Amino acid sequence: xxxxxxxxxxxxxxxxxxxxxxxxxxxxxxxxxxxxxxxxxxxxxxxxxxxxxxxxxxxxxxxxxxxxxxxxxxxxxxxxxxxxxxxxxxxxxxxxxxxxxxxxxxxxxxxxxxxxxxxxxxxxxxxxxxxxxxxxxxxxxxxxxxxxxxxxxxxxxxxxxxxxxx
Length: 166
Prior knowledge:
Layout: H1 4-10, E1 14-15, E2 21-27, E3 31-32, E4 45-46, E5 49-56, E6 61-65, E7 69-77, E8 80-85, E9 91-96, E10 107-110, E11 115-120, E12 126-134, E13 143-144, H2 147-153, H3 158-163
Antiparallel strand pairs: 1-2, 2-5, 3-4, 5-12, 6-11, 6-13, 7-10, 7-12, 8-9, 8-11
């Protein structure tokens, strides 16, 4: 079995501000002009981008949101939970993994502008996944949550918010 250290080295992964390690693996050459994008985008965006993303046990991807849809793909390792506060203010949890008999998904999408976070399951040592974003990801579209502010907006989810904010 590959180790997180091997994946970090082989794929030249870097620390991500939300937690874990990442590297962009694809950025389309085509762009969508700002005028054709939904309100809130501050410039042109690539049609699509893809990253590799690695989370080890004891680490998490903190609650954040982006202006685009983000499709998660399971590649290797062990299951990962993704927590989404959806447009109805409900907390939805989905598990990426390779055991469909346990309700795990090989891919799952987070809608644009929803707060979301992730972490490996308690019994998982690490998860190696990918994320495809369309319109393409740009750090201008990335907002890292502040726990106190998010808890005021969604007090019913305070426990998980405090666990998964930096």
